[in-house]
Design goal:
Length: about 300
Amino acid sequence: AETDEIEGSFKLSYYNEYKSYLSVVNMGEEVKEKKPHPIVQNLKAFGTFLYNSDNGTVMGRGGASWGKISLFYLIFYSCLAGFFAVCLQVMLMTLDPDVPSVKGRTNKPTVAIYKKDIYKMDFKDSDNWKKYTNAVAGLRADYVEAHKNNNNSFDWNNGDLGFCTDNNTFAVNNATTSEHSGCFFMGINRIVGWKPSGDIYFNCTFVKGKTGKGNTNPPFSLEMIPSIKDQKTELKKSYPWKSMKASGLQPLVAAKVEFKKEEAKGLSEDDLFTFIECGLYADEKKVDKSHTANFEIIYELPGSSSK
């Protein structure tokens, strides 16, 4: 009986230890260590890199280290800026502020004017007509102001442009009386040092234009102002062109156009396309490699309604 009691006590003790062991194992499975999110870890690491309170560093460097590297880059970039300034000054000393050192397509004679709305004279559309008159007024104002500041610039009011001097009188667009007149202006682009081979002048003619539909005998008169003879004398004085300071704005020539009501009788709508081509000539021949200017006249037959 005593042996049975001891054996039972041993079994109970063993059972309790086994039960305790299972409880510890189960508890280990249920309780797991919580690790922070990778993004949080990275942010903490980056914050520590920016400022580490343990060793007092900023971005991995202490105060002495930052002082040394700042002094180095201050000296380095100061020397670099000084070197650049010296190079720039030396380069600027080789340049003439009045004469371009590089010349490309602009070194070829071109008949042109820098006001885009001056190339089309639209007697049919009032809005387009206003653009033309505003462009002419702006061109005149530019030349008057340039001559005021530099006597070498072409004098708009010296009388060379004759009828085409005052845009308030030559620009006429009266649909009621069929009175239409205006002036196209042209000059040579400013080419430094270009010297013509002979007596140069501008001349304009009616052409078929790019469309091939242009009327070469439209009801308009076409007159060069100044005349070709006078142009040869006046233009000779202005070339070779040197610079804006020495020569000013280049001289201009005008082409006066005026509507001839009687000549418009019997024309059809297909006859209304009117194009003018103006070129630069010397010794009765077109200047070699020069470019022409193209103008357009838009109108309607007498009795038609206008916008």
